[in-house]
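WARN retry 2 of 3 for item q-0093 after timeout on previous attempt; input resubmitted unchanged.
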Amino acid sequence: MVAPQADDYFARAQAMLAKGPIPDAPDSGILLSLGFALAETAVDVAIVGTRSPRNMAQNIAWVENALPIRSATVQALQERFAEVEENWVQLM
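OK item q-0093 returned
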């Protein structure tokens, strides 16, 4: 069963994508998401689910070698969240 908020998250993702490419974003959406989460100074740990040991190894390699993502990318994402954020439900 899909959580009722899934539709809200998908709609927000579509609204953010409609704004066009993100400056200097990595090719991988997973790397972009991980880099964005870990760019927040209040975040010390990110728990990332994966389907296989190979994916886990890739995630570890990204943390060790590809992070942090560029600050312009983080700023662009923050601006997009602010633009489409009005009344979005969060799972907190």
